[in-house]
Amino acid sequence: MSTVLRESLGDPSRNKQSFTDVKLKVWCCRYWKLDLWDCHDMAFPFWRIYWNKNPGGMLKHHQNEYLMEKDAIFIILPFTSFSTSFAKNHVHDQGIHVSGRHIDQNDNDELIAKNSLLHLFIHFNLGVPFDNVYPGIFKVEVNPYLEEKLNYLTSRLRKENTKFYVTYTLKLQSIISDILSNIGPELFETLNVDHRILEVIRHVENHIQDSPTNGDLAKIANMATNSFSRLFRQQMNMTLHTFIMKRKIARSCELFLYTHKSIEEVAFDTGFADRYHFSRVFKSVTGTTPAVYKSGRFS
After folding, report:
1. I want to staple 118 with a disulfide (CB 3.0 to 4.6 A). Which of 53, 241, 249, 294 is the partner?
2. Same domain, 59 and 142
3. Distances 204 to 92, 131, 242 between C-alpha atoms, Å
4. For residue 289, which of 260, 242, 253, 245 has the smallest C-alpha distance?
5. What's 255's DSSP letter?
6. Which residue ranges of the chain lie beneath pLDDT 70?
7. Where does a domain end: 187, 204, 234?
């Protein structure tokens, strides 16, 4: 998925350059003290960056457990099923339970760290097809350059965490890009998606309320249904039906976060017959109910 500069755009060089089209959209960026962090089997449609300034936090993905130390940043890919906990206050073995607040200028990090987690988290998306990378968790070492950036961000969030003006937003985007670029090419397994699959993905994104069949979308790709279904699974590491359901839930999460629509309205807008079917699919994909997600009781 790329764009190419041409002479007609005012470029004096005859050498064509191809750039990857990444559409970074930040949903939230917060620096919190967490007193309780018992979250189990969460799987949401955005990327997450987690960094804890003090030890005691833990991430779990399948059989892998990650102890969260100050020298490591964790990147959680979209739709990755994972759990979190805080060793000093572990209460719940299921569900999503978070207790804490924003850290401001009057707080003392050393005092907070005695009983709570100093937790930076960022939620964002990169656009299609990059939001459909294979689920997983990446660990990135905090080098001096990244540590300086993280300290700037947490310091800035103490003073202002609601209004991200242009310069502030650009700095935040730069930090996200710096962290992602430390992983390497293995992160993006969908960089070279077949153009026919990309065409279908664009159609699904633009018609999220519809429920097309494999045959309907195979026609858009100009392929036989069976051949198209095989190609889609090879390219996207999932069936077409699973992809469509995930994109519907991804859109519903966006609507919950940035509109005041009810669960019934969001279900209708994303093409579900009723609230009950929508709720079943939502929980099967994210691990929680629409009501809990809409309340914002997660981090």
Report:
1. 53
2. yes
3. 38, 14, 12
4. 253
5. H
6. 1-9, 186-192, 296-299
7. 187
Burial of 57 (0-12, 13-18, 19+ CB in 10 A): buried
* 87 in any annotated domain: yes
Whole-model pTM above 0.85? no
Question: What domain range is 212 assigned to?
Answer: 195-295
User: What DSSP designation does 44 have?
Assistant: -
Report the CATH number at residue 275.
1.10.10.60
Structure tokens at 15: 């050498």
Beta-ladder partners of 76: 48, 137
Using CA atoms, how far residue 23 sits from 47, 96, 239, in Å, is 13, 30, 24
> Strand locations in 131-255, DSSP E?
137-141
- CA 294 to mean position of chain CA atoms: 16
For 199, the token pair is 């065409």
